[in-house]
UniProtKB/TrEMBL annotation:
It comes from Urbifossiella limnaea. This is Uncharacterized protein.
Length: 105
């Protein structure tokens, strides 16, 4: 069974959800084109934005094997994230509808 870490990506203080969504779309397009094997490690995306202080946030189920590469790409893109808890693992069955969207690879 595959296990996943929850990665919470955060926007800038005061940033609108739509602005973070646009930045994330560009980010994931870049990852898909340049690191397809690591993109395969992203299993699901939360269907709704959350809030982290005064900023929008979005959560992802990421395989531990792909996590370091995704974190490096986020840093290079200037996208913030909360520190992931690598010991808190979830099965793919916990990423269910309507709260999660499974990414089609």
């Amino acid at each position: 069974m595959d296990d996943y870490v929850i990665l919470t990506v955060t926007g800038r203080p005061g940033e609108a959800d739509a602005a973070l969504k646009a930045r994330l779309t560009a980010f994931w397009t870049h990852v898909l084109r340049t690191r397809p094997d690591d993109y395969e490690g992203v299993y699901a995306e939360a269907t709704r934005f959350g809030r982290a202080a005064d900023a929008p946030s979005r959560q992802y189920f990421v395989s531990p094997d792909a996590l370091d590469a995704i974190l490096a790409e986020l840093g290079a893109a200037g996208i913030d994230h909360e520190p992931p808890d690598r010991d808190d693992l979830y099965s793919k069955y916990e990423a269910s509808s309507p709260d999660w969207f499974q990414i089609d690879h």
